[in-house]
Fold this sequence. Notes:
44% helix; binds adenosine-5'-triphosphate; 21 helices; single chain; binds MYO-inositol-(1,3,4,5,6)-pentakisphosphate; 5-stranded antiparallel β-sheet; alpha+beta; Phosphorylase Kinase, domain 1
Amino acid sequence: MAELLKASMATEDWKKLILKTDPKEDWHYLSEGNANIVFTCRKSNTPLAGFVLRLSKQRDFKQQLWPHDLATKWLGKEYIGDIVYPISIPKEFSKTLVETWDKSRPTHRKGQDECETELCEEACLMYNWCQLPMAANVPTKPGKMFTWEIKPKNLFLSSSPFIDDSHIRKLVCEFSRLQWHKHKNKDESICKHCPLNLLFKHNQDKTPKLFLSELLKCVGKQSYLKVFAHVSADSSIPLTTLCEIKDFEHTLENWNVLLEIFSDILQQHLNLFVKLSLLQKLDCYDIEYVHACYRHLHTLQHGALYLSQISLCSEYSSSSLVQSDNKQDDANDEYKQSQTIALEKAYKQLQVLEHKHLSSNSQINSSLSNNACHCSKVESLRNKTVAWNTNVRHTLIQQSVQSNQPSELVDVINQYMVSRVFRDCSVIVTFDSNSFVFYLHSKCSSNTSSFLDTDPKSYCIGVIDLDPKPAQRIKDKWIDVETEILDHYVIKVLGSDSPSNK
Ligand SMILES: O=P(O)(O)O[C@@H]1[C@@H](OP(=O)(O)O)[C@H](OP(=O)(O)O)[C@H](O)[C@H](OP(=O)(O)O)[C@H]1OP(=O)(O)O
Ligand SMILES: Nc1ncnc2c1ncn2[C@@H]1O[C@H](COP(=O)(O)OP(=O)(O)OP(=O)(O)O)[C@@H](O)[C@H]1O
């Protein structure tokens, strides 16, 4: 019944359904990041149970759905799920919701601002990956269900033609470099494992399990891995709520078995990670070149117009370039059209990348192994004087930027912006550990890996957090971070002089 209702419901009906609930009683705080707070509905027998309510902390935020659409087209709907947007939620409702759960919120996620509880009025409902597909609206058994979440950041090495092959950016993945940069003063939480290893299938040393056990050391300190247990909130009610576990090695019985299950599920879906890595590889030219394109567009006579075609850009969205209402509508149409074009172009580029990938090697894994990251062999790079000629690189970049048409520069920036979305997304898995007991017992004696294929009801896997980033971050954050990383990494980790002086 709930499923039927769902299919035919308009955004306004969803809103009515939300407003019929009691913000103090009917919702449960699930989790949050920098930009969004997420709640699940505690009521069963409502279509809301199939979704999470995601409230944006940016007050004037307008969700752009094209990264979501691109992901659906490229990865498949089964990994992305439905979204209902925009749903306008009265400020009072979301304020009560957030205040009710104030104690559950981590301090570092709360804003400094007194008015932080005033969230953006446009909220969205997203497919709830904390439930099994067949179990929507059916209470789950506490103690046996778990939701694990992993951020597969930076699954690629730079391939920019402007960077020498011996450059650190082509040898050591950005994940490792970023770790050293962000956690340089608190070494205990550095994760010394490379996410690229998630892409290897056959090499026993590089299974997801190894990657996960490294990530586990950072649980609670970093947000690359989250684990939630489905617990019973009240023994008289057959409903479960989710409880994030920070120290699960000590809290959970059989955590080793759970790790095994999660790692086996990831192993079954390595192709999802390969596809995500290609989305991330849309960063074909690296931040230095993208920053140069962005700066160059600013200097052009009609620069603002070109910049407004960056479909993830808020600084220059078309609406800010026109005055009258009619023109505003035209501009919005143009903006939407530029998003569609950007999506098509990104999709075509993905097909080219995939073809390159597959044609160079029939085996995706062997092609990746040629491209392996050197982060675990930092010792061998230490004290090697690598003559990266920064001046030559900058000259080449400037020449290329000036010889390209503005529309080509817009395409480069657009694709970079998409790659940033997928470099920051998360893969979320919910499983019923009961269903895996037989599988784990018999794993050693026979080849039962097909169990995961034949019984998909025992787990689900999806991709979340596909919000676009504002293009201003190119100049306000990413270029500076990269420069700092290079200097820090080279001096502190490799122990040689900063190559940026060479
Ligand atoms: O800068 P990074 O690579 O550390 O990524 C930020 C993430 O840090 P992480 O390293 O994953 O812990 C950061 O994640 P956390 O808040 O640390 O969980 C955000 O995802 C941030 O994006 P936004 O500001 O929410 O749009 C992310 O910022 P963007 O770089 O994607 O803009
Ligand atoms: N569709 C979903 N189903 C289940 N849980 C979800 C869903 N979307 C988000 N969550 C939970 O809420 C948390 C915060 O959501 P999300 O990552 O989208 O926030 P964010 O502010 O955009 O994060 P970041 O700081 O990484 O940008 C997630 O880490 C996840 O635990």
